[in-house]
Prior knowledge:
This protein has 2 domains: 2-133, Immunoglobulins (Immunoglobulin-like, Sandwich); 277-787, Maltoporin, Chain A. It is mainly beta and 823 residues long. It has a 22-stranded antiparallel barrel. A 6-stranded mixed beta sheet has the order 10-11-16-17-14-15. The protein is built from 5 helices and 48 strands.
Amino acid sequence: MKIISTSFFLLLFLISVLTYSNSFAGNPVLMDSVQALGKISGTVVDKDNNIPLSAVSVQLFNSENSLITGAETGTDGKFQFDNLSNGTYNIKIELVGYSTANVKGVTITKDKPSVSIETVKLKSGSVTTEEIVVEAEKSAIELKPDKKVFNVEGNMITEGGSAVDVLKNVASVSVDVDGNISLRGSQDVKVIVDGKPFGQQGANLATLLEQIPANQISSIELITNPSAKYEAEGTSGIINIVLKKGTGFGYNGSVSVNAGTKDKYNGTLNMNLRNNKVKLYGSYDYRLYNFVIQGTSGRNNFINPTSSFILQENAGRSRNITHFSKAGFDYTLSERSSFSLSGSYTDRDRKRNENTHTTQNDLNNVVNTEYDLFTTDATTGYNFDMALNYTQKFKNPKQLLTGDFSFFKYKDNSVIYSSREYAIPVTIDPPKQEQFNIDDNNESNAQIDYTHPFSENSKFEIGYKGIFKKSDKDYKTDIFNYTTNSFLPDINQSNKFIYKEQIHSGYTQLAGKIKEFGYQLGLRAEQTNVDGDLKTTNKTFTNSYFDLFPSASLSQKLGLTEEIQVSYSRRISRPALQQLNPFVNTSDPLNYFSGNENLKPEYIDSYELNFLKYFKTVTVNPGIFYRHSKDQLARSRVLIDSNTTLTTFTNYGTTKTYGAELIVNGSPFEFWNLNGSASYFNTDVNAENLQQGFVNDGYTWSGKINSSMRFPGIVDVMMSYFYSGRLVVAQGELSPFQSFDISLKKDFWNNQASVALRVSDVFNNLKFQVLLDGSRFSETFFRKRDTRSAFLTFTYKFGQADKDEKRQRRNSPDQNNNDGMGF
Length: 823
């Protein structure tokens, strides 16, 4: 606890210094930045004759559409709101006998505290409502009360990439060479898309994320200490991937084509159509990716002199083809109710060829076994999801009722053929086998939420959510019989496993604000029912448990430019299907694999302390965190005989993780934006419940920096670098990895078209390496993909707004405000 204590006092010292420096009377620049308050002004005229309109009702709302104040235009048609804090506002303008206008996205910052919106023209005798969108370039990082938002739309560093490439550039997130995602050092993170579940977490997550094009993503939300309103699943929190939707009236769209080295291609088409009541949007993406794989595995055996060292070297090539399509619509039923339906479909085809060369040496380093394993894998599959939402508002706009239903289906069919060719000893009839795997998963979610305001600054929330999962894993293996000259079923390597899970949950939450003090207190209850059925052996198991998950968040503004926040949540990590399936896979005679039906859920208590400081051109967000896990879910590897290891899953006793994190976002110059993050944490693992001496501890640190420079009329340049230090587990450690990307972009044709050049992993450093130590063996794994590639992307935007109504307008360049808080 020495490190977390030191971090805590360093954070308090930083808060004291920053607070003192802001209040120091001898610094007029800082005094002005504290006292400066913003204003919004504008003019309303008659559309037909441009005569100013007086006595027009003008209402000012915050970003959550809560009414702040109101005003009326004077005889000159002008209005003005003064003494406004930094933030984003919406304005409603209406006059009896005229159309109504909604001005959205007006943002005030310390750099540009005064905003004058474009002249609003109301049409006489019309009852229509037009929407004027004040477009502004969003901050790269937005800090919300319960999450951090990373706006990635238009991020050049991910041109031609996927969701995995986007996540590589998000603070606190690490992505290894196989696409496995970690948040603050933990791979147990809940990933959702548009707030909805996204397939089975775990085995197929990286595959699914690879199929989401980067240019379809608007933002990434990190919720490291979720409130009771969110599911309790996930050790380190929740990552929400927010996809783009069409904006504006009329129609608009874009087309993009991309080509990369080593045969990597993709093309995307987006279309959007919108009027007063209906918004339609759709997209299609085609992706063809080829890549090579290489790796090694070396095992030292301390108990068997005839196989004291085993070396496996593998090399392979993979070809992936993906079709991704998405469509949906939002329909406004009335002023207070709306309805939306969306869905996506992905079709995939993967072919993979791999060769593994194995040598086995005795104690005198003499080779006594040598063979090659040739494997071909042909996999086809699809996933489909749909989401339905209904929103009902009441007389008080903060009183809200929402209902959501979503469904997700994931299915894969694979045929894997493998054969061995022995050099030592010479084998006349080398083994051959075929595997036929069907992986079928379904998940349904039903949710209802109600928000009731007690006052302008307090509200009560209550809701229910039901999750229903079913997975059917059918694996069949045939072995070639040289006597019959045909493949025959092998029941020892075939299994059918059906898994069902139901989670019923309810929550209540109270949130409010007393002057500059904010609070959010909640409690969530979850009932989990699990059924597993290994059809092959008629082995069944059930589990049922009930849990309570409290959460709390307190915040205090220390001034206009400073805020401190402390939060707590209790969370859970449930064993996944592949972790529970008790079948032992013996297809590799040196490396067995199985699940463990006796696994218990992992429980986590998470604490955070964050501080937020706004300078003139920089936003700084330091924080410290602490997690205590009981019965942590983890892999374990044991030597079960003189040659073979068994990889399975188990529960560690306790794990403690504590550390500090710093996120900085700023613009040193108008053309240059910098954002970066650094985190340092220590992990203590105690797994002596499994074996005496199974303890490990160690620190790690990681860092990211993104630099974006815009030279108007010339070129845009973006560079990104990340480093992830070693991570410890009970039996060893994961070695550090790093990557550097660079991108250039040129706009032309009045910004309707652009060409971008991106180079990923410039120095070819991204790799995956694990070191394991046991009392009877030690082992090293190494894997590498061809992550260094160059991509060339051409994008063209098209569309036609409804110019007659002028429903979408763009503010002038000097109004593109950006305060780091976002809208």
